[in-house]
Structures are given as C-alpha cells and as structure tokens.
Amino acid sequence: MTRNRASAKKAGATFETSIAAYLAEHVDGHIERRTKNGAKDRGDIGGLRAHGKRLVAECKDYGGRMLAGPWLKEAATERGNDEALAAIVVAKRRGVSDPGQQFVLMTLADYVAITTGTRPDEPTPA
Fold this sequence. Notes:
By secondary structure, the protein is of the alpha+beta class. It has one domain: Trna Endonuclease, Chain: A, domain 1 (3-Layer(aba) Sandwich), CATH 3.40.1350. Helices cover 37% and strands 18% of the residues. The protein contains 3 helices and 6 strands; from the N terminus they run αββββαββα. Strands 3-4-5-6 form a 4-stranded mixed beta sheet. It has a two-stranded antiparallel ribbon with strand order 1-2. A hairpin with a 2-residue loop joins β3 and β4. The mean pLDDT is 92.
C-alpha cells in the first residue's frame, strides 16, 4: 500500500501516542502527546524533564530513509521554541512495533545537557 498524506499523518499520530504512553509508564505519568502548535511547534511529547528542565521530543514515523540531519535541526528549533534544555528525535524502526525498541537520535551537546543539566554551548548561569 502506498503511503499518502492522510495515512502518514495517522501513522505519525499513532506512533507519537505509543511513545508518549511508553514514557508515561516508565518515566513519569505526566508525559503526554502534545497538540500541534503550528509555526511555534514545541515537539510532539510534553512533560519530559531532566534536572527539572523541559526536554523536547520529536517523533518520526517515516516512510523512506532516515533523515537524521533535518530531523535534529527541526528538534533544535522546537527546543528553542520551548526554551527547553535539550531535544531528542524518536525515530521508528522499520518492522519493530515495541515503543521501547525505537531509535533515539540527539546531538552530543544535547546528550551532555541531559546528563549534566547544563548545555555546553550556552553560558553557565552565575
């Protein structure tokens, strides 16, 4: 079956919901799928935190090849829109339905921010 815009949107919503439910069960019950915010999108999952600061998660259930660079750029924009500590991309693994077995992509700066609570590319608060 060929993927069209409607089927892609439905697959994306289903994937986002499964990721949010998995994170809510295993991390924090306040995590949920976010509603869309248009030009000021703040990611697909709300309620994620590290060191008391917000994290942005962008989910991708893609039909073609993985586009890590553009997806990370989109997540970085959403991190800025949300004034969040870091951003991750959760990418669907083809043929794998278990939410816990999906890929997580991030920059090394985002990994450092999640691990330490401070972004290495921004000044340390005084």
